[in-house]
Amino acid sequence: MKSGNRTAPAQHTEASGALRAALDAAAAEVETAPAAALAAAEAALATVPGLPPALFVAAQALRRLGQPADACARLALIGGGIQKPPMVLWELAQAASEAGRPAEAIAALEALTRQQPGVASGWFLLASELRKAGRDGDAWRADLSAVHAASRDPDLLAAAAAMNEGDLGKAEGMLAARAARLPDDPVGIRMQGELAWRRGDMTDALRLVERAVTLAPGFDLARDFLVRLLMQTNRLPEALAHAEMLAASPVAGAGSDLILASVLVRLGDQERARGIYERMLAAQPDQPMLWQNLGHVLKTLGEQGEAVTAYREAVTRQPAMGEAWWSLANLKTVKLSGEDIARMEAALAEIECEEGREEDVFHLHFSLGKAFEDAGDAARAYAHYAEGNRRRRALVRYDADEFAAEVDATIATFTAPFIATMGEGGCPAEDPIFIVGLPRSGSTLVEQILASHSQVEGTMELPDMMMIAARLQSRLDDGEFADFAALIRSLGPAERLRLGEEYIERTRIHRKTGRPRFTDKMPNNWQHVGLIRLILPRAKIVDARRHPMSCCFSGWKQHFARGQTFTYDLAEIGRYYRDYVRLMAHYDAAAPGAVHRVIYERMVADQEAETRAVLGYLGLPFEESCLEFHRNTRAVRTASSEQVRRPIYTDAVEHWKAFAEWLGPLEAALGDVATVYPEVPEGLRP
């Protein structure tokens, strides 16, 4: 809110030109020389008692001299009551606030916002004062009114247009200029946060958006954005706190409930998320996305029958909803009927060429692939799997050569001499049990067996180690180090301790019991075995391995929600498997015994012997409950969630052979890794 006073009311036209000039000069130096401005105003008042411009300048100066109560007294002498000029009301509000007189500040601001409802700064200050007075609901609404007013700000509209057009430099210049004028404007700050996010600077984005909601706690759109940023960076406890606040908004809508449910799902609180979805569906039963989300939660909880019902409710309301069809098909113990196939084919024909429906299209292809596979029609199943993968591959970035080079760099860095001489360091906690390997390798089975032990808590695929590794990689990408080896060697004992403690702290939110050990089943962590050994030297690492043809084919025909970008091409997934075997063979030689390997086929053939072996590696006593893992009712979020709720079976060991005639690219990429399995080819040994 700008303030100033250039003209006197009509009744004071007797003020001389020299007096007006003196007051103009005093107003100009209020900020820099308030004492001089006050003296000039007092001189004017001595000449013309009660002169409003002089009273206003005197009040401004007194507030800046730390005398807000005296400033209020001067402003009270300016007539007009609640119809005082806006600049007087603005100054009165600030003076009353600084004098600790919130009622006067609120009255002034309510009068101001009635006169100027389109000026956001008045609403924001009103919200602040209302909050001080304990009127949180009214304060929230005032913040929302401020945001609404700011939505018509031409500077912000122009900056938003530049961002949407991809001209981030132009938007940055506009927002910087505005911030110089209005450094504490929440709307401008939130937009600067969005700009940072678009540039990929998550740290700055979080800092700015957090500041925006601190300045305006009722800024729901900013808080919604903050929750999403916190989820992206896996800061889930903070995300939950802000999602709870968002849901408590006096104008909270369905969107607030949805984002709260999303955070709860990520935290593993499936029951509470289920309650939110069921409550929303009771009010709006025709929402297919809600039915789909409820299905996801029910599947995780092991309520398979109810999950099937939820997914079918979704596709009944939206027949071309590809993800819901895939979620239904992906229930491994469910077979889709001929009627289901006909409905999916009709939906696919309707949307296949529609712009913006690519995700529905490839989900439908994966779903039809699964349906035809279950029906025994391998040729049609393969055709749909291939088309779904082709379409999905076109949407992701993955470079097999680049990935192989990263594996080369890791091998060259974590040599036996380096591992032997890395010395003390890292966090001494022995809580984590990392289960690594490829997706669809039997890792969920291993986790379920271990989570059935009285000393082990099963969590989920935790992204925290990968996020720590990505943060370190960004330092290399930014040019801080010459190469990967230099980066790793720079990690001294103190930093390794800090990183290990960070991992333990970040994952604490997922631990719901008092069990001393917990599993982290992120399969991709095989890439970070060396880092794990550096920062958590007492952690255990279990490598779940399955026949490469079976594992890779199973991964290729599985559509993953995120992350597994190497799975959408047969040759690429074969190369990935070879790189995995190559790196793990290196660790077997460089740090013997650091990793325990579980061969899926051996586990299926003799569960007790393999279970005893892995428990021995972990230093845990054998418990019969581990053999009855299917009785464990814990939530399981992976694609194998239904399969691990029944005893071990053997029917999936060689299912790939029905598709063998089409798997030439995979077989060629795997080479001798497939023919000598479970041994490691001579050419991949160090």
In total, the number of strands is 5
* Structural class by secondary-structure content: mainly alpha
Query: Low-confidence stretches at least 5 residues in length (pLDDT < 50)?
Result: 1-15, 637-642
Task: Estimate nothing, just give the exact number of structural domains.
Answer: 3
The average pLDDT value, as a whole number, equals 91
Overall geometry comes to elongated
Percent range for helical residues?
55-70%
Q: Total number of helical segments?
A: 35
What would you give as the CATH superfamily of the largest domain?
Answer: P-loop containing nucleotide triphosphate hydrolases
The main sheet orders its strands as 2-3-1-4-5
Radius of gyration: 32 Å
Q: Based on the structure given, which CATH architecture of the largest domain is correct?
A: 3-Layer(aba) Sandwich
Strand residue content? under 5%
CATH structural fold name of the largest domain: Rossmann fold
Keywords: TPR repeat, Transferase
InterPro entries: P-loop_NTPase (IPR027417), TPR-like_helical_dom_sf (IPR011990), TPR_rpt (IPR019734), TPST-like (IPR026634)
Pfam family, one: TPR_14
GO molecular function: protein-tyrosine sulfotransferase activity
